[in-house]
Q: What sequence folds into this?
């Protein structure tokens, strides 16, 4: 069982942390949620011999993020940093675009925020998202369409020269 747990952690640790980082916009909280999620995984693996799916694991992480968001005061501006060693002007432009995108995603309400992260950031299939969010496939498609529409309205328009 210990080996199964380690394999699950190794396989999904980046997805769980990325989801938490996008939803919470705080590294420390994202790390805490990731750790709490794996504690729940360990408890579930001890309690039963059921197959624990990626959908279950990400649903647990998402729910933990939602709980933290509800309990917190105003959202902080801290976002995970991505290292980039390119041209400074290019990096500054990319950083600004990334900040706009992260702010726009953070401004979406649930389940729209989770849908964007699961589909467009983490590249999950529609079926996986339906399982994770306990929605029908058609609900996922309709809500994702609405989420993208809201996201486009929140992003600044690119200037044409």
A:
């Amino acid at each position: 069982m210990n080996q199964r747990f380690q394999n699950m952690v190794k396989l999904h640790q980046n997805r769980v942390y990325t989801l938490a980082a996008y939803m919470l916009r705080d590294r420390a909280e994202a790390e805490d949620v990731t750790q709490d999620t794996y504690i729940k995984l360990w408890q579930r693996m001890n309690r039963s011999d059921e197959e624990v799916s990626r959908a279950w694991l990400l649903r647990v992480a998402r729910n933990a993020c939602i709980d933290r968001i509800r309990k917190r005061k105003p959202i902080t501006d801290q976002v995970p940093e991505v290292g980039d060693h390119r041209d400074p002007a290019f990096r500054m432009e990319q950083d600004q675009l990334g900040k706009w995108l992260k702010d726009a995603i953070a401004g979406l309400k649930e389940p729209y925020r989770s849908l964007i992260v699961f589909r467009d950031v983490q590249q999950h299939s529609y079926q996986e998202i339906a399982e994770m969010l306990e929605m029908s496939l058609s609900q996922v498609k309709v809500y994702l369409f609405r989420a993208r529409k809201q996201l486009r309205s929140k992003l600044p328009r690119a200037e044409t020269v």
Notes: DSSP finds seven helices and no strands in the chain. Confidence is low (pLDDT under 50) at residues 75-80. Residues 87-156 form a domain with the Arc Repressor Mutant, subunit A fold (CATH 1.10.10.10). The chain has two domains: 1-73, 87-156.
